[in-house]
Design brief:
mainly alpha
Length: 71
């Protein structure tokens, strides 16, 4: 199993405390800015992954001749 996946699940469930130590040398604003930027980057990656899957699904429908709700 992918270790980053396990760390992600563990951090969501917070099984063993904090996995990612905060940087003490950054101001609150800088730390928040970096955290929010990282969050949006992950959201963007999720959207990209979904779009690729949708493209693959649409490609699969065209190959089989199935067009979904079209009559």
């Amino acid at each position: 199993m992918n270790s980053s996946f396990v760390m992600g699940v563990g951090s969501v469930l917070n099984l063993a405390g904090n996995h990612f130590p905060m940087s003490r040398n950054k101001s609150g604003f800088d730390a928040d800015f970096q955290a929010i930027a990282s969050d949006w980057e992950m959201i963007g990656q999720d959207f990209e992954d979904v779009m690729k899957r949708l493209d693959q699904m649409e490609f699969g429908k065209e190959e089989t001749g199935f067009k979904g709700g079209e009559g």
